[in-house]
Structures are given as C-alpha cells and as structure tokens.
Design goal:
With about 80 residues, this protein is mainly α. It has four helices and no strands. The protein has helices at about 5-25, 25-35, 35-45, 50-60. The relative contact order is 0.15.
Length: about 80
C-alpha cells in the first residue's frame, strides 16, 4: 500500500470512529476513556494524528475490536 493510500485509509478510519463516538455520546466516551471531551473532539477531528494508545482507549470504550497485523510483503 502506498503512503498516500495509507494516509487516506487512516483518515477514513478516524472519520468513521468519530461518527461512532459522536453517535454514542462524547461525554460518556470521555468518562469511559478518562480523556477530556475537548481532547476527544481534537483527537477525532479531520487531519488529527492521534497516538496509538489514545485510539486503543477509544476503541476499547466503544467496544470496537482493533486488530493490528503485519502487512504482507509484496514481490515485484
């Protein structure tokens, strides 16, 4: 996957996560994660580059499993 495509996928994932978070309620998510509401809004805003541990807190609180696995090497 190219760098540009990777960035696009990351931003799309963040937008989707923000939609779920807002639907469930940012105030409740703040309580569940221990993060401030303002911090969550900033983290989930377009163009943000949140830390991995922050994303893990959010996905855990939302009950969304997040799996990380190595990319397959491509052969020319």
């Amino acid at each position: 996957m190219g760098i540009v495509k990777s960035v696009i996928v990351q931003q799309q994932t963040l937008v989707a996560l923000a939609d779920v978070a807002k639907a469930r309620g940012i105030a409740q998510l703040a309580k569940d994660t221990g993060l401030g509401r303002e911090s969550l809004y900033k983290t989930l805003s377009p163009g943000a580059k949140p830390r991995f541990d922050t994303i893990m807190k959010i996905t855990k609180a939302l009950g969304i499993p997040l799996t990380v696995k190595p990319a397959l090497a491509s052969h020319p």
